[in-house]
Amino acid sequence: MDVSVGKSWDGMVDTLVRSGRYASPAEVVEEGLRLVKEREKQLDWLRARLQDALEKGGSHTDEEVEAYLDDIERKLVVEGR
Question: Which BP terms from GO are recorded (predicted)?
Answer without folding.
Answer: regulation of DNA-templated transcription
